[in-house]
Amino acid sequence: MPPTSSPTARRGALLLASSHVAVDFSQGAIAALVPLLVLERGYTYAASAGIVLAFSLVSSIVQPVFGALGDRGAVRGLLPVSVLAAGAGIAAVGVVEAFWATALVAAAAGVGVAAFHPAGASRAREIGGGDHLTMSWFSLGGNIGFALAPLAVAATVGVLGLGASPLLLIPAVAGAAAVLMIPRVPAASGGAGGAPSETGHDDWATFLRLSAAIVCRSIVYVGVGSFLVLFMHRCRGMGDGAASASLFVFYLGGALGTAIGGHLAQRWPRISILRWSYLLSVPALAGMLLVPGPLVWPFIALTSLVLYVPFSLHVTLGQDALPRRMGTASGVTLGLAVSVGGVAAPVIGALADAVGLAGALLPLLVLPVIAFLVLLGLEDPPAATTPPATSRTAGEERATAGR
């Protein structure tokens, strides 16, 4: 249960996290659909990664734009619409036949994801008053969506074929309903709200170094997630069921890592947690790629866990570094965390076509080391604060749920 200050705030936080489940279900479903596009439609590694690229590139470009609009108060009622848009795009992936049509609907899903995250993160900060645990619970909702996606895809599209992809719209409908049920939540006392601060200094140097580290982490996480099922199937000789289960384990480890990250931030500096997480991910990833047999399973879970410990901390650090542009900070940190990795996915796919999948994934070991080095000498920025928000009626709250 999120540690917010009132039962109403806790209910609002849980409903918001539920909507995040639905949105990131769409992101997890893209990765889970990749092997089906390879096996059922005969796509090459590079072509299937191109679908991930269409989704991720659009999302990574558009997401900061939505964040900047949120800073200007130009976004109204965006959350339910964005949840439905993300789900509708994923639902259409298996229905359309042409490659470019598939890429187009994947890109439409990316727009929905891009619209949700800045508004959702700002809303989570408003509910929790800047509390790290509240943001970790919001992020945890997304991780749960990622974890559930491969199971749902395997149980529907994996059994019935790509034509069953419209069934993947169901979580989006539930997520949009959850947003509309979020009650009026007064600003958390003594905390930072989700609106830009009227005081404070935007520390762009810190923010850019943080963003560079996030890019490195994103390429590793999305690259592994996009090809893990195929890696387990073709490089480890596992059947379809076990290979699909590996993606569930990978995303489930991410959910656990997110929850752990919020708790660790209550005791230690967030930047220190980021550095150690990146460093520990190197042996974990090496074990996943190099250790044969059943021992690969704990390495899969450990890799995702240490890569996701920093996830919610990226968001609060970005917001604190840019207190006057919290929407922009949310859009960039959340956008880079997943979307930029999709841009690198076709490169990994093309390399896999040339040298094999295992050889294409091994260079990823260098990136967490770069992220660790980028953050050396950096300290946590001071927590951003905002004036208390004025109370709103339940009708006004629902009308402005996208903020």
Give the topology:
Layout: H1 7-41, H2 45-71, H3 78-93, H4 99-128, H5 132-155, H6 157-160, H7 170-180, H8 204-234, H9 240-264, H10 270-290, H11 296-308, H12 311-321, H13 326-355, H14 357-361, H15 366-374, H16 394-399
Helix pairs in contact: 1-2, 1-3, 1-4, 1-5, 1-7, 1-8, 2-4, 2-13, 3-4, 3-7, 4-5, 4-13, 5-9, 5-12, 8-9, 8-12, 8-13, 8-15, 9-11, 10-11, 10-15, 12-13
Plain-language structure description:
By secondary structure, the chain is an all-alpha fold. It has 16 helices and no strands. The chain has helices at 7-41, 45-71, 78-93, 99-128, 132-155, 157-160, 170-180, 204-234, 240-264, 270-290, 296-308, 311-321, 326-355, 357-361, 366-374, 394-399. The longest helix has 35 residues, at 7-41. The chain is globular and about 55 Å long. It starts with 6 loop residues before the first helix and ends with a helix. Mean pLDDT is 82; it is low at 188-193 and 386-403.
Q: From N to C, what is the helix and strand string?
A: HHHHHHHHHHHHHHHH
- Give the tally of β-strands: 0
Q: Could you report the average pLDDT, rounded to the nearest whole number? A: 82
- The end-to-end distance, rounded to whole angstroms, is 23 Å
Spatial extent as radius of gyration: 20 Å
- Tell me, what's the shape? globular
User: Percent range for helical residues?
Assistant: over 70%
Q: State which percent range the strand residues make up.
A: under 5%
Structural class: mainly alpha
Give the low-confidence spans.
188-193, 386-403
Alpha plus pi helix count: 16
Q: Tell me the major beta sheet.
A: none
